[in-house]
Amino acid sequence: MSDATRISLTRFLIEQQREHGQINANLRLLIEVVARACKRISIAVNKGALGNILGSADTENVQGEIQKKLDVVSNEILLEDNEWGGYLASLASEEMDDPHSIPQHFPKGEYLLVFDPLDGSSNIDVNISVGTIFSVLRAPEGVEDPDESAFLQPGVKQVAAGYAIYGSSTMLVLTFGQGVYAFTLDRVEGSFKLTGSNLRIPEETSEFAINMSNMRHWQAPMKQYIEELLAGKTGPRGRDFNMRWVASMVADVHRILTRGGIFIYPRDMKDPSKPGKLRLMYEANPMSFIVEQAGGAATTGLERILDLQPEKLHQRVPVFLGSKAEVERVSQYHRDAQA
Ligand code: AHG
Ligand code: MN
Ligand code: MN
What does the domain layout of the chain look like in residue ranges? Predict the structure, then answer.
């Protein structure tokens, strides 16, 4: 198929609305504006050292992490592009302590947008793939200026979720709860074109993604699971497993969506006050929605991530997601250990 005949993001959104009636004009505008913001972030990322935005911003976010200049720039791009459209009641982000209110002079709408503006930011300065993750919720009715509590909805309530990956090509991956679709940025035309429909994660896999350097801090079921994979052909699993760890969740999840695998960021005892590293609202929930829609599974080891009732905007959770058979197996080890 020539690039000219490929379906654009706009056409896709309109045709989905005709077929399933799930993308009204406001939601379509929201997705198109987020896609445009991701295009701007992609351009900033691609400039590399020429853009003068590598390195740290000398500030800390609410989670005590040093922000990179591009974390701050990406956050600003997403805020700036989305606050005027009239479809949002509020926005929240990894990089802001509290939700960002829509300025008084703009109209408010029915949706909430929560995002990780730049995921994998430790990889920016070394030219490895990074991304943007986002989740769309409905604002509670009758709330004039939604605060944090408005965002605390379980992942099953997501209206849409997606991520952009700034890799060797820039892609946008989306779900509205009717399958997963992938778009590739055509840099000549400046538009996203549909390049993958109804993506499916293979149920079985021989590839895992985990930061092995934390092994000594893991709990027993986690150690057991990984030791069995490492034992390979002569171990209890009877086959060899391969390992990959990009340290950008977006890139690791994108690989799993493409060729299968299991991604794990477990709870560990390095800092017992933290029940995991990844954040529920803007990392675990949107990725779990996408993974489930592609036929995979996503748990905390004990529970389905999408069923969790969030308690805080920046809450962390253990994450096990990807090919169903492996996620179920490692979750079973965790449940058995609890029994
Ligand atoms: P962020 O850059 O948004 O803070 O997220 C980083 C996350 C995630 O992308 C990745 O899977 C994980 O941190 C990597 O953690 P380690 O450095 O501990 O491997
Ligand atoms: Mn992240
Ligand atoms: Mn981030």
Answer: 3-196, 207-338
Q: How far is the C-alpha of 300 from the C-alpha of 288, rounded, in Å? A: 11
CATH number, span 207-338: 3.40.190.80
Which stretches within the chain are classed as H helix?
Answer: 9-20, 25-47, 69-82, 148-151, 220-230, 249-259, 285-293, 324-338
Does the domain spanning 3-196 belong to CATH 3.40.718.10?
Answer: no
Burial class (CB in 10 A: 0-12, 13-18, 19+), 204: exposed
Task: Summarize pLDDT for 133-183 with one digit per residue, the tens.
Answer: 999 999 999 888 899 999 999 999 999 999 999 999 999 999 999 999 999
Angle ∠(248,56,51) on CA atoms, nearest 5: 85
Q: What gap in Å lies between CA 25 and CA 81, rounded to an integer?
A: 17
Is 264 close to ligand 1, i.e. is its CB under 6 Å away? no
Tell me the CA–centroid distance for residue 21 and ligand 3, in Å: 32
Listed residues: CB within 5 A of ion ligand 2: 116, 119
53-103 tens-digit pLDDT: 777 777 777 777 777 889 999 999 999 999 999 999 999 999 999 999 999
What does pTM read for this prediction? 0.97
- What does the alpha-carbon distance between residue 129 and residue 83 come to, in Å, rounded to a whole number? 27
